[in-house]
């Protein structure tokens, strides 16, 4: 039986991308704790051609997704790996005005009512997170951090995303070990 509803964002990971002379490789996925919310809105325009007094040809462009990833706190390692922050020998983290965001794969899953379905976006970039805080009053109000993200088609394959359900057991079990690629050979 498949899912009737989707809920429960968890197991968010990122895998840095390396581009060596056009050859794309993914690093080992790194867990990001404290996932709160993920919103990914499709991007791409619809083209319509009219002939014979009807929409004779209709095509939708797939330019990936844009949205947000909300986390309890963004880990410093993510800031260094994906946002270009620099750490000095004393362990102080610097946001560099000349830093260029680095692409990464984003892996995650939703619990669902029957199956936890695992997903991957293959080519994601993130903007700097918001900075917000309030004083503690009679109650503590937790503030989260939000990244604006863009999930573009992969440079080498054009794939935007993939998903696996528990029925695809070998791929599903290895999902957070390596970034799954089309027709990958997986050794259980």
Task: Explain the overall architecture.
The protein is mainly beta and 188 residues long. The protein has one domain (9-173). Helices cover 6% and strands 42% of the residues. It has 2 helices and 13 strands; from the N terminus they run E-E-E-E-E-E-E-H-E-E-E-E-E-E-H. Strands 1, 2, 3, 4, 7, 10, 11, 12 and 13 form a 9-stranded antiparallel β-sheet that branches. Strands 5-6 form a two-stranded antiparallel ribbon. The longest helix has 7 residues, at 76-82. The model has no long low-confidence stretch (mean pLDDT 92).
Keywords:
188 residues, mainly beta, two-stranded antiparallel sheet, globular
User: Structural class of the helix and strand makeup?
Assistant: mainly beta
Task: Write down the overall mean pLDDT.
Answer: 92
Shape: globular
Q: What's the story with the biggest beta sheet?
A: 9 strands, antiparallel
How many structural units, i.e. domains?
A: 1
**Over all CA atoms, what is the radius of gyration?**
19 Å
Task: Spell the H/E element sequence.
Answer: EEEEEEEHEEEEEEH
Helix count from the secondary structure assignment: 2
Strand content: 35-45%
Number of strands: 13
Helicity level:
under 10%
> Span between N and C termini?
25 Å
Low-pLDDT stretches: none
How would the blueprint of this fold be written?
Blueprint: E1 9-20, E2 23-26, E3 30-31, E4 35-42, E5 46-51, E6 54-60, E7 65-71, H1 76-82, E8 86-87, E9 93-94, E10 104-110, E11 117-126, E12 145-152, E13 161-164, H2 169-173
Antiparallel strand pairs: 1-2, 1-3, 1-10, 4-7, 5-6, 7-12, 8-9, 10-11, 11-12, 11-13
